[in-house]
Amino acid sequence: MFEKSSRIGGRNGCLEEGGYKFDIGPTFLMMKFLLDSIFDECEVRSENYLTFKRLEPMYDLRFQGKSFKPSNDPEKTKREIEKLFPGSSSGFDRFMEYEKRRFAKIIPCLQKDYSSLGSMLSFKLVQSVPYLSFGKSVFDVLKGYFKNEDLSLLFSFQSKYLGMSAWDCPGGFSMLSYIEYAYGIYHTQGGLSAIPDALAKVAKEKGAKIHLNAGVKTLLMDGKKVTGVQLESGEKVFSDVTVLNADFAKAMADIVPKGKLKKYTPEKLGKKKFSCSTYMMHLGLDKLFPGEHHTILFAEDYKTNVKEIFSNGTLSKDISFYVRNASVTDPTLAPKGHSSVYVLVPVPNLDSQIDWARDGVTFRENVLNQVESRMGWKGLREHIRVEKVMTPLGWQNDLDIYKGATFNLSHNLGQMAYWRPRNQFEELGNVYLTGGGTHPGSGLPTILESARISSNLISKRFNVSFLTKTISM
Question: pTM above the 0.85 mark?
């Protein structure tokens, strides 16, 4: 494996400075059973490499001056609903009952590859069709369970995991919130960047060789077949197959030799739909402020905030944001008595006309003001000892993410399954894809699934036996 950076992980990596450790990207571990199965298939146990903590409550959702702290204990969640929305908890029962069926029908479809159009005619996929809620958005589906719009909203924010608005995200993805309520949310000690570190340890034990500070400059080609890679150092490495785990669009634009693509040329990629981006602030504080591990704070006018991000391409003054105060759970992330804080604000990707060099200064002040006031963390600025900021421009320039679109290609129906770049890449021979830009999509669990699918395809190609664990609900 060749990694451009000095450490593995990419968007699932970490930053360390002054004794503080910050996850770069994912901070929610949902569908832990999928991660466990990756280790199982390597004939090892995840708990021998990672320390897991189930979070209770799952998070604190703050809206309109109120706080909702759901649990994956359904009775506790129903009590929380009744406190804020009297008479509405029966909708939660309907939600859990139907979304359980939806999830059972759809997850097998997320665990298979779509290398040919014929694969779309599989019996399992046909069975799932009634559960895809065609023509409905996530918000439409949730309104069917919860008549109160605010309550629907509290079950819809998971569409942001895909970098999409709940009013645009296909209705089938309403199962994302069900997954959290049914299976819980976990933290891994040391942050979620401990996951790629653990996977790397297992890989090395199984014979893999990992090369750091070894960026790939270009693919080596024989006609339309890839024969290996040329590193930035000039070294050429030949291989039977090549697996691309780079940001898909960035890889197509930068490391595939010019003239080799027809479907994913730079011009055609520019017309694809991409997710939003994120403004990230990592704060090393000399104080541990109170709060839950995860807090999500909705804008006062959430629908307008979403419109500004996804339609107008402008920065909101009335922002929605997420705060991870992980040091209340994990003391390894900061010096004793200190804390590592992660602030994420969804913002437009680089298709917008935002000048981050100019507008970023004002936006930073707004974010800090909002964290201070809405989290109740008075005097926050006085306690900042380390501050690292990542704008969409930083995502593009520092982590090679196309348009700074943190969640990759959008998940509209025309960019999913067979119509998403395929695990066995359709444009070039001997190339397999993993990551958010291929099937099944972005988000840590689905990215792990993309790795499993591609690994199994390669094993089948070379008649290598392998273990596989079907997830059944």
Answer: yes
